[in-house]
């Protein structure tokens, strides 16, 4: 099956810092999403981004499908950004998660 | 306006006692998914329905079954829960063809 790897696995930032999270996938995909999992376990949709670049406030994402990777940018990080970030890829009707990046933002 | 609703949010069951988790959706999506997420791990796909067509992942244990009586509802049945089945169970929906997926809040299952 398709392999989805995220890096880095863990990240600690000072509040106000910027960061880039990466998602690599091993095969062609129909689509890709980025999620933030909050401390209560709920997955929050951040971006649905099969290709190109999207921005939402301090967050933006870029997917280069032909090179099989996606990037999530977090600018001016806040403590509320802490949690686990997952990318998930879609092939046909199957939806597979990456390994996740655990982000901790320190005041 | 919750779009994907899972019940209950927390479930405690006894070792070996059958348990059912439910998921409902108001999006009229034809694909529904069930995931298992254990602590500090990524969600793992158990199975999905495309309309009434059931698609089981190859490594999903036989202990896990699912029912989809109509478009709106999907159930996860664990026939004989073991301690290793304690996890967060997540339901998601999407339209066919890999469109954006929406997740419920999850059910956290404890096995005692």
Q: How would you sum up this structure in a few lines?
A:
The complex is a heterodimer of chains A (107) and B (112). Chain A is built from no helices and eleven strands.
Described by strand count, sense and barrel closure, the largest sheet of chain B is: 7 strands, mixed
Low-confidence segments of chain A: none
Strand content of chain A: over 45%
Distance between the termini of chain B: 34 Å
Main β sheet profile of chain A? 6 strands, mixed
Which pair of chains forms the biggest interface, and how many residues does each contribute? A-B, 24 and 26 residues
- The amount of beta strand of chain B, in percent, is over 45%
Helical residue percent band of chain A: under 10%
Shape descriptor of chain A: globular
- The string of secondary-structure elements of chain B, in order, is EEEEEEEEEEE
> So how many helices of chain A?
0
Whole-number mean pLDDT of chain A: 94
User: How many DSSP-defined strands of chain B?
Assistant: 11
Helicity level of chain B? under 10%
Label the structural class of chain A.
mainly beta
Which regions of chain B contain 5 or more consecutive residues with pLDDT less than 50? none
Overall form of chain B: globular
Contiguous helical run count of chain B: 0
Q: What's the gyration radius of chain A in Å?
A: 13 Å
The radius of gyration of chain B is 13 Å
* Oligomeric nature of the chains: heterodimer
């Amino acid at each position: 099956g398709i392999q989805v790897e995220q890096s880095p696995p863990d990240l600690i930032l000072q509040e106000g810092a910027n960061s880039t999270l990466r998602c690599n996938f091993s095969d062609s995909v129909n689509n890709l999403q980025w999620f933030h999992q909050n401390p209560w376990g709920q997955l929050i949709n951040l971006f649905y981004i099969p290709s190109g670049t999207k921005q939402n406030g301090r967050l933006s994402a870029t997917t280069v499908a032909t090179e099989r990777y996606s990037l999530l940018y977090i600018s001016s990080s806040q403590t509320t950004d802490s949690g686990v970030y997952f990318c998930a890829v879609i092939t046909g009707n199957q939806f597979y998660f990456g390994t996740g990046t655990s982000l901790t933002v320190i005041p | 306006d919750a779009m994907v609703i899972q019940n209950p949010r927390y479930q405690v069951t006894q070792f070996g006692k059958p348990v059912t988790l439910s998921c409902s959706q108001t999006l009229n999506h034809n694909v529904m998914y069930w995931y298992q997420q254990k602590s500090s791990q990524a969600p793992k796909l158990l199975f999905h329905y495309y309309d009434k067509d059931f698609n089981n992942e190859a490594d999903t244990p036989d202990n896990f079954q699912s029912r989809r009586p109509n478009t709106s509802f999907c159930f996860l049945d664990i026939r004989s829960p073991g301690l290793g089945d304690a996890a967060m169970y997540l339901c998601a929906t999407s339209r066919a063809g890999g469109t954006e997926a929406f997740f419920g809040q999850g059910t956290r299952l404890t096995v005692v």
